[in-house]
Amino acid sequence: MTKRQGKIADMYSLIVLFFLKFDGEINGFQPLVDQVLLFAAKEKAIRKLLDEQGYGSKGKTLTKAALRHLMITGILKLVKKGYAWALTTGDTDMLTCFGLVEEDFKLSQENLIVLVDKVLKDLTDNVLALTPYKVTLVTIGAIKTIEADYLAAKDLPKQKQALKKAVTTSLAKEIKVADKILVICDNLINSEYEDTHPAMVLEYNNDRAVVVGVNRHTIIRAHVYGDIDHTEVIAGASMSIASLDRTEVTDIDGMGEIIQFNGGDYTLLVKAKGFVDIEVPFSIMRGKHVEIDVVLKPNTISGNCAHLGKLGVENNVSIVDTNFNTMTDAFGNYSFEGVPVGSGVIEISGPGGNSDRKTYTMVMGHDLTINFDF
Known about the structure:
Blueprint: H1 3-21, H2 23-26, H3 30-52, H4 64-89, H5 92-98, H6 109-125, H7 127-130, H8 137-152, H9 158-193, H10 198-208, E1 219-225, E2 238-241, E3 246-249, E4 255-259, E5 264-271, E6 278-284, E7 289-295, E8 300-307, E9 310-311, E10 316-319, E11 325-327, E12 333-337, E13 342-349, E14 355-362, E15 367-369, E16 372-373
Parallel strand pairs: 1-7, 8-15, 8-16
Antiparallel strand pairs: 1-4, 2-3, 2-5, 5-6, 8-9, 8-12, 10-11, 10-13, 13-14
């Protein structure tokens, strides 16, 4: 389940409550009754899928990946405040420490924890000066708690990962059908009750607006993902309409939008570091909104490692002079996704200090295979 799917499910629940509240008014309009029954059944099916992932259940244990994301997101908020403080005071040492971006945290677990601990120490050492910026021992302690939970968490088993992707894909299909039903409900409710029950229509449109909204502005809204199952959102992707000289950036949920422009035929260009640029043509009428899902293909390097005829298990693999760092798995395999275009060097280190290096040239949208046998 993606965050967007969870928000949409919440919107659906509000609409079901709306239908129950105005049951008396709706019952006299059979075409609408038919659609309401279909929508209620679809909302129930979506809730069942969400229950399979423990959505909304109290005390649900977060996955290791989710805790990692939560930890990095939390500490980035603190370092941004620290960076603003350092700029204000002219503290060049702290500017270097707090001048971090999300890319700086794309490290192996060991190196990530070293970086997090260093930043938390620098925040703690300057906590008195940072208190006006709402960086306190409490907020720092909250990150330390998440860090401890992250270190204690187990990686999600592959079969559970597969289940998560399957459920997310199923949700996408169910939501697509439910949205089609709601489009019919939109037209029936607004046309039938706009004059006789304006308050009811207003409440329906407000509930309908929780996620996607009814807006008079022309809007193109894109949800950008790094996989076809829509489980990996891409924050910080650039989306632009060149003919309008309009550019926006996707938020932490991978969503971005461009608003207030004339209707017509356009092309949306989406870019993200480490992914192939993609152009998406679309047509839109003035005052309408269009939502599209965009899947970017990552630049990938993967391979296998062997040492003296045996599988190179738990060998350190890195791209020299970058934050790309990982360990080979139980079969000697490794993989890097989102590798920037250009030339570089991959280094592998085995037990006893043995190591090897290989150069590569990454071309946009390529999957490189680089094996080691040393």
